[in-house]
Amino acid sequence: MSAAGKKLAIKRMMDAPLDTVWRAVTEHLTEWWCPRPWRSEIEALEWKSGGRFAITMHGPDGEKHAGDGMLLEVLPKERIVFTNMLGKDWSPQNPQPLGIVGTFTFSDAGNGRTHYRASARHWSDAETKRHAEMGFEEGWGVCADQLEEVAKRLKDTGDA
């Protein structure tokens, strides 16, 4: 984990080819987006630069955490940049529990493997610290592990 420059980040070397990891990200988001036993429900998801996302996470005890935002940049098989600071129609919003600019990056590592990096940038040192204390590394790490599980399944079975 890195906290330099108001940023938290995790890295993984995934045992699946870049094409398969990308497919897992974009076609199977509900299978990896939040740590189990939580589950995700997609309300809106436009995989394009300027596209909207609205995803609700449901907890095992009936908890709900709605997330709404914009995909600022989508470069297939390379990078996804998003924020929860902007909502539908690019309207500024006050996100909860805190605002971020998130980035997922992907690159071919050769031998059927993929470099994956996920980061969250914050507006202040206090927000960075708060996100770290909320469990950024563990939560985003679990999601990365779940993403790799999905990608490996797709690689091994060809399941779509």
From TrEMBL:
Domain Activator of Hsp90 ATPase homologue 1/2-like C-terminal: from-to ranges: 15-151
Matches recorded under InterPro entries: ASHA1/2-like_C, START-like_dom_sf
Family: Belongs to the AHA1 family.
Protein's name according to its UniProt entry: Uncharacterized protein YndB with AHSA1/START domain
Organism encoding this protein: Sphingobium boeckii
